Amino acid sequence: MSLLARTVRRPPADIPPAVVAVVVGAVLMCTYSVGQWVSMQVPSWDLAIFSELAKAYAHLEAPIVPIKGEGYNLLGDHFHPILVLLGPVWALWPSPLALLIVQDLLLAVSAWPITRLAARTTSPWAGGALGIFYVLAWGMQGAVAAQFHEIAFAVPMLAWASVAFVEGRWLASALWLVPLVLVKEDLGLTVLMAGLAIAWRARGEQVQVRGRRISGAGLGLGVALFGLAAFLLTVLVLLPALSPTGTWEYGLGGNAGDGSTAAATPGGLLARLLSPSVKLATLAVLAMTAGLVGLASPWMTLVLPTLAWRFLAGKEAYWQWEHWHYNTVLMPIALGALLDVLVRLKGERTWMQASVPVRWLSVLAVGLPLVLGVVTTPRLALAAMLEEGWGQEPPRAAAAQQVLETVAEGSTVKTDLGLLAYLVPRANVYWVGSASVDTDYVIIDTQSSAWGGNPPVNAAEWATSTSSGAVYELVLDVEGYQVAQRVAR
């Protein structure tokens, strides 16, 4: 054996599968996002909203987002001060695509701790398979397809907090949990549940904190109280103070879709939580993601606040498991709960004489999410990349570019959904459905879904008739895009 061979140490067996999971996740998700951007697929106005926020932070300004309304501070919509980190990103790469890549990388890197723990708990091959499932799971793909949202920052925190919990590193878990309150207001309740889980699991143990020893249960209860206090402070004080309406707009019954609230009786509440059947489907998929055995872990209780606000709301998109980004924060929790139970089973010698051997129970627990991944893959977003022509520029790409070049740098623009995000880097953008100001330009895409199949015939006439005295003239009409420019008041 050469001297080099004797001195170079092999990496731990859990490193290679973690590298594979992170790289596979990053490459596939970034490829999807680039293709989605190039092909001009626009699922909602959210990417444009967060792009305006990033642009404001890049200029060291408050996150005023005209798309939501004149002078609208986005911190009054959802409380996500952690998004100030997007400011430097936008300064270096002023494009909404940058936000998509940031989200993809955040989701991908969260597979690192999960996969390493899975490989140590099972085997490198099984752990690697779980890591691949995790990074490409239904909740992850839903987020990528829905484009950027603030919860992308929560996923790595929850992944590392989950692993620290499983390994009994209570202080590390707590430190990963605390910043969640800066990501979104409801995550304070997730921190509350995590603190209670730590308090239960760490009872009777001591934790070293700044040279002092405190009880593990006390640490957990402290985390729980912090999460609850942060939630109450945010929704009762900060959000109402920053919101244009002076209220927390997403409280119980607020923005629920049908304006209804949960029934007062326990039976009515249970019916509201479990019907219609799409909610049961989401619960079933989540349980399989945790390998069913994960339901026995106290860590699984962290999913309850997220599921509660979603299922009590009247908006159907909140209930689904296939689409949107609402399931993303559940992924590291479910995998963490699965691994928590596997680690504990592995250490329980009495299970070896049980009627169901630990080895076979572990195989079942690991196999369930893997089977789920295989079965659901054709229904999820990344499968679209296999379709012919996916990710290519649409037929109207040249026309869209002509529209963008018509708009002067630094001007104000009112438009519909199609080019909303694409206009943010060069203009201050308003939404046709909420803007009450007369902008320099009005852009109408006659093929946009925003008009419900009944778009204005002439953008200039529509802009003039809906203005507060401004006059517009049509300066561009190409392949369904119309650009009207303000010429007088």
UniProtKB/TrEMBL annotation:
Coiled coil: none annotated. It comes from Actinomyces respiraculi. Keywords: Membrane, Transmembrane, Transmembrane helix. The chain crosses the membrane at residues 15-35, 82-102, 122-139, 176-200, 221-242, 283-312, 324-345, 357-375. The keyword tRNA-binding does not apply. This is DUF2079 domain-containing protein. The keyword Transmembrane applies. It comes from the Bacteria. The lineage of its organism: Bacteria, Bacillati, Actinomycetota, Actinomycetes, Actinomycetales.
